[in-house]
Amino acid sequence: MAMAGAVGLGFGYADWRAASRPPASVSNPGSSGPASSAPGSSAKPPGGLTMARSVPVRLDIPSIGVHTSLMQLGLNPDRTVQVPPIQSNSPAGWYQFSPTPGQLGPSVILGHVTLGNFGDGVFFRLAALHTGDRVEVSRADGSVAVFSVDQTAEYPKEKFPSQAVYGNIDHAGLRLITCGGTKNTTTHAYPDNVVVYASLVSATSASA
User: Fold this and answer.
1) Is the pLDDT of residue 3 over 90?
2) 0.85 cut: is pTM over it?
3) Any bridge partners for residue 68, and if so which?
4) Which residue(s) pair with 134 in the sheet?
5) Best CA proximity match to 5, nearest among 27, 23, 21, 28
6) How far apart are CA 92 and CA 178, in angstroms?
């Protein structure tokens, strides 16, 4: 997967355009980015746990062996979301115009399923996650946001549910995104996107 909006051929990655264009109608007050590209919500949830804003720095998913630092991803000139670079041990990346993990709204993290000649990507086993699996996000303030997987879904790229992934929600959520489906042996592209939906279930404070 090259930068969003580019078609990657020959490296075992895919076109991210379907997964990488947030709806223009949502806004995220916790972000310094433009409202037209900032998923999230200004509505106060009816209840449930949330955390103050703090940039994520690490992602751990014990059940599939994911332990990665997190880079920050912005927007390309065509207003698609950037993705991590194709290089050895490329980390996952947090979309900086989404809420930080633990804030109200859907925090979005993207990672590669494969890295061409560099082998498996950090999210190679993402589709194997099950309901109830634990996802931990360490944050810059020393706190840890702990999420529980609600659902793992796979969508054809042309039917990617942008509103469901990036749109407003009434709780602190997490979206993990990669490519999926059977890789085309000619184009080396993947036809689908895998999306894991998760919800915040606990948090440790910076002083814990």
Assistant:
1) no
2) no
3) 59
4) 148
5) 21
6) 10
